[in-house]
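Feature request disguised as a bug report, sorry. It would help if multi-protein outputs had a clear separator. Right now it looks like this:
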Amino acid sequence: MIRIKRIYDEPSTKDSVCFLVDRLWPRGIKKQALPLDGGWLKEAAPSDALRRWYGHDQTRWPAFEQRYRVELDEHPQDWQPILDAARRHDVTLYYASRDTEHNNALVLQRYLQKKLKR
């Protein structure tokens, strides 16, 4: 199972292998305070250019999803560690965005769940 969780929320015992999937380190969070046994996979996040283009503008959300999926298709080595872990354990993808319905972790979660079904 692949879950997503906002990095500022309380950690849960349900979190198993945890990855941070944001390009930028979350503000106000100390590196040693995070339970990131999977690591920080900033390359699995949208590129800087795509992230800046989107700018949390929800009118661009459908295009952002599509463009991000293209980036994921082009760089499987960036998300493969998550998929490998998800085949053996539950995985939690941490993200920092305030928007819980429009964020890169949600797109990545859906993308990887499709890969797991194959």
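(second protein starts here, but nothing in the output says so)
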Amino acid sequence: MKYFIAAVALLFFTKVSFAQSVNDVEVKSLNIYTTDSRTSLPVVTAGSRLVIEFDVQAEFIPNMNIVFRFCDKGWTPAKNVFLLNNLNSTAYFLDFEYLPSTVEDAEYHFKGEYPNNKDDVQLPFSGKWRFYLTDTQDSSIVYATGKFLYVKKEVPLNVKVKRDELENKTYWPVELGKVFNVTTNFNLPLQFHPSFVNKIEIIENRRIYNPVVVDRLSNTLFRKFEWDANRKFTFIARDIQAGNEFRQVDIRNHNVFIAKDVKALLDGLEFSRFFIAPRTKDLNGGMLFADFKDIYSTYLNVTFSIRPPDDVYGELFLVGAFNNWKLSLDYKMESEAGISSITIPLKRGIYDYQYVVADLINGKIVNDDWIVLEGNTWVNKKVYDVFLYYNDPDLGGYERIIGYRRISTR
């Protein structure tokens, strides 16, 4: 059987600086993609490589390494000696370029591709990985971190997406019942044992913090597992909300966005899009930075403002490609006179984003609603990345990804 290799990379940011700051070194605009796609969920397949790119604010050129670590299913670096990969886990002494002198709030830029011959970085295990941007002399000093999945596509997946409607109750407005049905089936090759097949995980439009999981240990009206007691498997998720195209801010044009402080929407306020069909195509949750060598490729303070309908209750949060679609207290919007606003620093570029309504109870975000302000319509394009997990008993046991497929709704 021919084997294919893939990797999925994920990002982390904080609100204030989109970085972690240690010893006056601040990593900004951390971006991970592949050599064949700059906006999709970064899945590195045979013939392409993972790209790690970021800016740095520091007084002097930083001394950094990138350390790669295989993780368990909870993203905790493995302590199992068989999974440490010590000889091929580090990219040493990163080479930085100077940013143009006109760029504010950052001095240096880095871009690297992995694996490559120079650093001899290897990713031998199929599953979840983390990388750490560390000090060259002291790896306990971590400037930023990220996650990715490395996948060997050993099991061909047949994935189908179709329109569906929820049936457990009557929905009003009726748009609330619109969903997509994602059905995955496959025949397990002989080298794998059926009892170790674990689950299907579906990531929609880069929303890594909100995966759809279909587990073989539980069956519900909307999440189903089927097995013929031999080698034929089917996993069904038929409750994925249809959603809408994302909102988008494009601050690349320096003739339009002239000042340091700008508004995401030029004419000011945004409003609910629940009954508004999408008019423009988004980046399916992605972002695109301006060329780092561009003299105008600086950082701006961007204000997002929305006037929600009077019947929408709860706190408002901003989520988007700039914070890896993570619902966070750092992105809670402040409300005044019926208008919710937040200002964040962004490098010139294009960013998909949206607004989420949720309750804040004892400092925790609960009851999050991703569609009440954005709409729920089948007239939009979504991309689903589907992963098949396997509880491999080898090497002391680890959760392994043996199948992967990307599919879109249209």
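Even a blank line would do. Unrelated, but nice: The chain has no helices and 27 strands.
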